[in-house]
Amino acid sequence: MEYFLELFLGGLTRGSIYALIALGYTMVYGIIELINFAHGEIYMIGAFTGLIVAGLLTMYGFPGISILAIALICAIIWSAAYGFTIEKVAYKPLRGAPRLSPLISAIGMSIFLQNYVMLAQTSDFLPFPELVPEFEFMKGAGSIMSSSELVIIAMTVLSCIGLTLFIKFTKLGKAMRATAQNRKMAMLVGINVDMVISATFVIGSSLAAVGGVLIASHIGQINYYIGFIAGIKAFTAAVLGGIGSIPGAMLGALVLGLTEAFATGYVSSDYEDVFAFCLLVLILIFRPSGIMGKEKTQKV
Amino acid sequence: MNFFLTAGCDSFAHAIKKSFLAAVWFAFLTFPILVIKVNTIQNTVVWHWQKIGYMALAIFFGSFVWRWLLARKELKEDATKKESRGEALLTKIQSNNTLKFGALAVLGLIAVLFPQVSSLYQTNIMISCLVYVVLGLGLNIVVGLAGLLDLGYVAFYAIGAYAYALCNMHWGIGFWFMLPVGALFGALLGLLLGFPVLRLRGDYLAIVTLGFGEIIRLVLENWGDVTMGPSGISSIARPDFFGIKFSISGSTTYMYYIMVGLMVFTIFCVNRLQNSRIGRAWLALREDEIACQAMGIDKVKTKLMAFALGATWAGMAGVIFAAKTTFVNPASFTFWESAIILSIVVIGGMGSIRGVIAGAVILILVPEYLRDFAQFRMLLFGAIMVLVMVFRPQGLISAKRKIYEYTASKTASAANE
């Protein structure tokens, strides 16, 4: 039972991280129908920024919890800046181009960013300091759940609630929903569509940065390559829930995280990533619109 | 002056200001990752301030070019598409039979003499370039002609390589028998993947093929009993000539001629396929899937053929790769290999045979000869993919379409090609 509980909590943690990244995919897809292939790299850049900032602060003797807060804020700022710039450079000039073009441009961007980080930093695995302090009360409760797992889950829940409220009630959120429904009509009623798209990239990238710092601190090492697998899995989660739908992304991420945790726990840990990919292939074949997605009729 | 004033800048000062802001923005953007190197174990920090200076300078001047190119692209979109000078020359050569055969004869002579006059090292590089030409032409069928974005193409390449490696290791089966068998394996796997993904469109297809490629790689890595896991299979036999074995330098030359032969065969087949019924169906499928179905084209058959035929050449190239390096391991078949092949197709010009050859020569040979530059190779691949998509989506050499022109004075139509 304890093993089951451990796997369940591990799956919950994984799912939360996937959810943070998947929200970015889903938001961008909902608005411009583009798979932002470089989104995983934003997550990676968030983790690297977190590492650099945390390393600097540790050296100057800042107290533990402030390091976490400042590293998170810096990661959010830079990831958001990268997301914003990527959209302006690689996607905006391609509005109205055939659908394959922005996708190839996104793949190019993803390759570029990985190699940029690899050349500027290193291709080796870098150790990441533990930023989340061990809480006192958790020690008594046994080793089932670490405090960093608790922080990850809490952060995800807070982000999801915040995002949902933002999209439901703010002016920008309403503009986003309008743009997602019909871009031309949104333009006609005076919505600055370019601004809405930029805002979408900024918000999605910020969430990915939070995920990047927290998961890096939880695992303890990072590499220029981490964005690729994380990005693919988050995309799987987004598709699983129905891409374009925000509650769908959260649900899909949880399902994927739990599936992976139980499959590695009870079947085999060698094939960890294979499960995710197989799940992705199966979903796309049998239910391409996902759990909460709507079937779309095609227009000629 | 006109150069600065295009792209929404109303004065020279405005253009300078825009570029200055871009430089500042990129300096901010690249600041932590480019400038600071932190070692959290030894607690040391290294600052590279000079890097950010170079970056800002490059962006300052680059942004002029960027805006100018964007403006030019917008202007061009309305004007009728003109051929570039290089393309016009190629067309001229192709339309004149004497010139065409002369050029072919010169190319053939160069190809035959190349291993005799160059070093072993050069021949080896040329072989890998030719392997990429074949891979590019194969992927060109799927992506360029049929418009199906396949990001897991390397899976078929891996199947060919592993099929030869395993059969050679266990049963000592030779290269010449395995070449067609590898092609067959590739085609079968292509059908196998083609079936489930028939319903998917565009970006979903891309992701599923990517996932499929990764599944194959992970299985190769983890199924240690059969594939020897990450350590791979070594001492695979080189090809022989009717039972005669060569020395290393002899077999490299031999390999080179096999590769030239295979490339010519591939070009011939792809050229014939392009103008066949199925080739036309692929083009129609690429342009508009629904309209294509409305015209009575069997979507299932057309897509499956594209996958299977594309994969056939990947299988053959895989067998050749295993025979050339005499060693295979899963690390040779990562997603990046797929990305390189895709960039060859995209940068060269989707759907154009000449384009794919040019793409392979530029992307494989140029980095090989600029050794010091090699670490920037993937960085440049990525950047070029973005730039090509933004400024020249048809690639370096665009595919020609047959155009029939009607003029009022001439009733006869002039075929152009």
From TrEMBL, chain A:
Pfam families: BPD_transp_2
Record has Membrane as a keyword: yes
Transmembrane segments: 15-35, 42-62, 68-91, 103-121, 141-167, 188-216, 274-293
Subcellular location as annotated: Cell membrane
Protein keywords: Amino-acid transport, Cell inner membrane, Cell membrane, Membrane, Transmembrane, Transmembrane helix, Transport
Membrane topology of this protein: Multi-pass membrane protein
InterPro entries documented for this protein: ABC_transp_permease (IPR001851), BCAA_transport_permease (IPR052157)
Family, similarity comment: Belongs to the binding-protein-dependent transport system permease family. LivHM subfamily.
Protein name: Branched-chain amino acid ABC transporter permease
